[in-house]
């Protein structure tokens, strides 16, 4: 039987010093061996944090390793061409993140003589960096007692304190920032441990913040958390009251909107027709195969001026993916340009080998993989 729920004014009585100590001790013994944990270079930490936004760790590892090999410093990021920048990011999505990385790198060269700033206010002033990223860089790279709050940390803190209010609402969110700050300030009094195996540490504040994220990623999971092995279980209200299924409250999700596209694979003398997306649109600067959007309920392929289809009833492949609230279906067909007709779908004719040097959106990269 769940115990009687704790009152909200009892939540502040949780011993932050003990919780911080338990988390830091647990993290030092159980931290995953991730490549960006083997350095205290703020540039490397920054790149990893931006890549990890909305992307799983296992996906990020090869991207980060390739990036750091090719762009090992702020100066190399600032100077790389846009085409190469997008190619290095190809597959991670949310391309505004990588554009802001380069803008920030150029700011660091111009305003900080190429040295990544350590002062939180100066970090926050860089393009594409928000409150969470400041806390991550300041604590992980510089050992500062700066809090952070991401999805994993929100889940840990709301369950720990039994917070049932919507975590995205301003008052609740600020309360969570305050609780995160309380823990990292308590951690600042703990002894440091600069190296554990291959992992480097900037000190207990770094370990505390990473422990919160690690706990949310490996134990305090959204569903079926493994509470029995949690290092702070005996202080967790949600575990004690049987509330892990209902906490955190993240509000209602936006209703998904279905969209349908068809794309054409057009080949001529061993080359394929592709086009580059214009500036100021989603996936600007990336390459794609010619495509058009259909009404979501339209099951037929409409006539497209200038094209005839090789096999209208049998698509080459179907790609399903999501962008923000959109659920997109992309049906792909082989097509030919009708002799004597001028197609309205302009682009460039590109060989198979060159296709692989261009940065494509994730959905269209699947088309490229299918035909090459």
Walk me through the structure:
The protein folds into 2 domains: 234 residues, Endonuclease III, domain 1; 115 residues, Nucleoside Triphosphate Pyrophosphohydrolase, CATH 3.90.79. Helix 1 packs across helix 11. The N terminus is likely disordered. The chain has 372 residues and is α+β, with helices and mostly antiparallel strands.
What is the level 1 CATH name of the largest domain?
Answer: Mainly Alpha
The CATH topology label of the largest domain is Endonuclease III, domain 1
Order of helices and strands: HHHHHHHHHHEEHHEEEEEEEEHH
The best one-word shape is globular
* Count of extended strands: 10
Helix content: 40-55%
Structural class: alpha+beta
Name given to the CATH homologous superfamily of the largest domain: Hypothetical protein, domain 2
Calculate the mean pLDDT score and round it: 89
Number of helices: 14
Assign the CATH architecture of the largest domain. Orthogonal Bundle
> Largest sheet, if any?
8 strands, mixed
Low-confidence stretches: 1-12
Rounded to an integer, what's the Rg over CA atoms?
25 Å
User: How widely separated are the two ends?
Assistant: 60 Å
Strand content: 5-15%
Number of domains: 2
SSE blueprint and pairings:
Blueprint: H1 16-30, H2 42-52, H3 57-70, H4 74-79, H5 82-89, H6 96-112, H7 120-124, H8 131-140, H9 151-161, H10 170-187, E1 195-196, E2 199-200, H11 204-218, H12 237-241, E3 257-268, E4 271-276, E5 287-288, E6 291-294, E7 307-309, E8 317-323, E9 326-337, E10 348-351, H13 352-355, H14 362-371
Parallel strand pairs: 3-9
Antiparallel strand pairs: 1-2, 3-4, 3-6, 4-5, 4-10, 7-9, 8-9
Helix pairs in contact: 1-10, 1-11, 2-3, 2-8, 8-11, 9-11, 10-11
């Amino acid at each position: 039987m769940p115990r009687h729920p704790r009152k909200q004014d009892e939540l502040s009585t949780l011993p932050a010093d003990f919780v911080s100590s338990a988390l830091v001790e647990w993290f030092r013994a159980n931290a995953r061996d991730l490549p960006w944990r083997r350095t205290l270079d703020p540039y490397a930490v920054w790149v990893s944090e931006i890549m990890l936004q909305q992307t799983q760790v296992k996906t990020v590892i090869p991207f980060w390793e390739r990036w750091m090999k090719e762009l090992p410093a702020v100066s190399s990021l600032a100077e790389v061409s846009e085409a190469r920048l997008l190619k290095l990011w190809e597959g991670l999505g949310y391309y505004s993140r990588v554009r802001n990385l380069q803008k920030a790198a150029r700011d660091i060269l111009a305003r900080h003589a190429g040295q990544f700033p350590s002062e939180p206010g100066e970090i926050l002033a860089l393009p594409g960096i928000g409150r969470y990223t400041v806390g991550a860089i300041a604590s992980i790279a510089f050992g500062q007692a700066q809090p952070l709050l991401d999805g994993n940390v929100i889940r840990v803190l709301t369950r720990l304190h039994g917070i049932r209010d919507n975590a995205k609402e301003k008052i609740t969110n600020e309360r969570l920032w305050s609780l995160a700050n309380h823990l990292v300030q308590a951690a600042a009094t703990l002894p440091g441990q600069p190296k554990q195996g291959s992992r480097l540490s900037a000190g207990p504040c770094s370990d505390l913040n990473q422990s919160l994220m690690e706990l949310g990623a490996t134990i305090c999971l959204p569903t079926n958390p493994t509470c029995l092995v949690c290092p702070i279980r005996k202080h967790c209200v949600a575990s004690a009251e049987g509330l892990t299924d209902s906490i955190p409250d993240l509000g209602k999700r936006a209703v998904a909107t279905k969209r349908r596209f068809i794309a054409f694979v057009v080949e001529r003398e061993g080359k394929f027709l592709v086009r580059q997306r214009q500036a100021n649109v989603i996936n600007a600067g990336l390459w794609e195969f010619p495509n058009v959007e259909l009404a979501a309920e339209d099951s037929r392929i409409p006539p497209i001026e200038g094209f005839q289809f090789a096999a209208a009833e049998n698509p080459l492949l179907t790609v399903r993916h999501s962008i923000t609230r959109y659920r997109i279906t992309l049906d792909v067909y082989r097509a030919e340009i009708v002799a004597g007709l001028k197609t309205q779908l302009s682009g460039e004719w590109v060989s198979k080998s060159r296709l692989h040097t261009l940065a494509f959106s994730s959905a269209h990269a699947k088309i490229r993989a299918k035909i090459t």
